[in-house]
Amino acid sequence: MSDIAVEALDTQTSLEAPSRTAIALVTLALAVGSFGIGTGEFVIMGLLPEVADTFRVTTPEAGHVISAYALGVVVGAPIIAVLAAKMARRTLLLLMMALFAAGNISSAFAPTFESFTVLRFITGLPHGAYFGVAALVAASMVPVHRRVRAVGQVMLGLTIATLIGTPIATYLGQLLEWRAAFMMVGGVGLVTMLLIALFLPKDKVEEGASITRELGALKRIQVWLSLGVAAIGFGGMFSIFSYVATTTTQVAGLGSAMVPIVLALFGIGMNVGNIVGSRLGDLSIKGTIGGMMIFNIVIMTLFSLTAANPIMLCICVFLIGCGFAACPAVQTRLMDVAADAQTLAAASNHSAFNIANALGAWLGGLVISWGFTAAATGYVGALLSVGGLAVFALSVGLERRTGHA
Fold first, then answer.
1. 218 shares a domain with 203
2. Is 253's pLDDT higher than 80?
3. For a 10 Å CB count at each end of the chain, is N or C smaller?
4. CATH code of residue 312
5. Domain boundary, last residue among 209, 234, 251
6. Is-contact 128 79, C-beta < 8 A?
7. Which among 317, 328, 324, 323 is positioned nearest to 264, based on CA atoms?
8. Which compartment or compartments is the protein found in (predicted)?
9. Chain-centroid distance, C-alpha 373
10. Are residues 300 and 203 in the same domain?
């Protein structure tokens, strides 16, 4: 970790000196926001047929709204982080969640498919900035040796969303109408604003904060390499997850009723990975990232080799979800190597994850279009994990050579 980053965190911690109760309440508020964002991002995947029927488009055409949201995340994270460089973090979090809530509620009333697509893009804009700033706030409240765990607790809202939030919102959307699901997500955004306003103390803009300073992150090779680890290394998880329903029914020969169960196993794995990975990260950030990349290579290869066996399929899907363990460590390493340009780097991590999502899904689909079964997405994932490990090894090698992050 850079001396500047340590000094900044130590200064914030000593000035605030929050109690355990205060830390817990702030973490809860931030995690509720990540729960809402996670639910809003993934719920559309289960409601595409209903959206397609409403707007009289095909399901593949309706899928463009998923891409629109992802594009909003990729574009919004760095732009907002830079433009809001001189804004207090509490204020920025409130504005980001206000935009998220308004975007989802407006999505529920979209009159046309074109307007719905635009609104999903707008709703995606605050995604990365919120997660990045929330991670910085959480890390600033605890001792340095507990930072990864604090970041993981904020991300716990996202992993719980995959397990609980998305299924509930999807069920609500199917029971009533898909618009109700987005109203629910917008409501979570409003609740988050209230919790942040109540529990997160007002803060001051950091001394020396500026757009120029934030843009300085782009000059740091370690920031780009860390983003590369996320964009490439996590693509494998998305490659497999995007086609896991097809693998379940066409490769393992299970009925469609088993798909929700397999998806739930993935969600459970993400939660377990987040909790365990946060603790491992506090022991060794680099060891956790490198170790999980190797873990992913092994498990994803095993997935391809054994996907035809229903029991092994379930075990591997759970373990692939556990690969999320590296996420809090990658987020924290980005904060470290960015020195005094932490907001841009932390927010951009989620742009990198959405690139991983697009890359993994595209490569997985490409392999299937070549005539391979959906189980081959595991090999795609393993190769992407090898790529992520190679980028990480380069990052660590350069760090050792230069003597600093």
1. no
2. yes
3. N
4. 1.20.1250.20
5. 209
6. no
7. 317
8. Cell membrane
9. 28
10. no
Average pLDDT over residues 246-268: 85
pLDDT confidence tier of residue 205, bands split at 50, 70 and 90:
low
**For residue 207, what pLDDT band results from cuts at 50, 70 and 90?**
low
The first and second tokens of residue 2, run together, are 């850079």
Q: Any residues with CB less than 8 A from the CB of 170 and at least 6 apart, and which?
A: 43, 46, 47, 181
Residue 225 and residue 275 in one domain:
yes
Domain of residue 332 covers 213-405
Domain count, the chain: 2
Mean pLDDT of the chain: 84
| Residues 49-69: tens digit of each pLDDT | 788 888 888 766 777 787 788
Q: pTM value?
A: 0.80
Please, which residues have CB within 8 angstroms of residue 311's CB and are 6 or more apart in sequence? none
Last residue of a domain, one of 209, 243, 274: 209
Do 201 and 295 lie in one domain? The reply is no
My answer on whether 156 and 202 are in the same domain is yes
CA nearest to 269, candidates 303, 229, 304: 303
CA–CA dist 92, 109 (Å, integer)? 26
Give the tens place of pLDDT for each residue, 88-126: 888 999 999 999 999 999 999 999 999 999 999 999 999
Q: What is the pLDDT of residue 317?
A: 93
Give the Cα separation of 362 and 195 in Å (integer). Answer: 38
3-state secondary structure labels for all residues of 236-253: HHHHHHHCHHHHHHHHCC
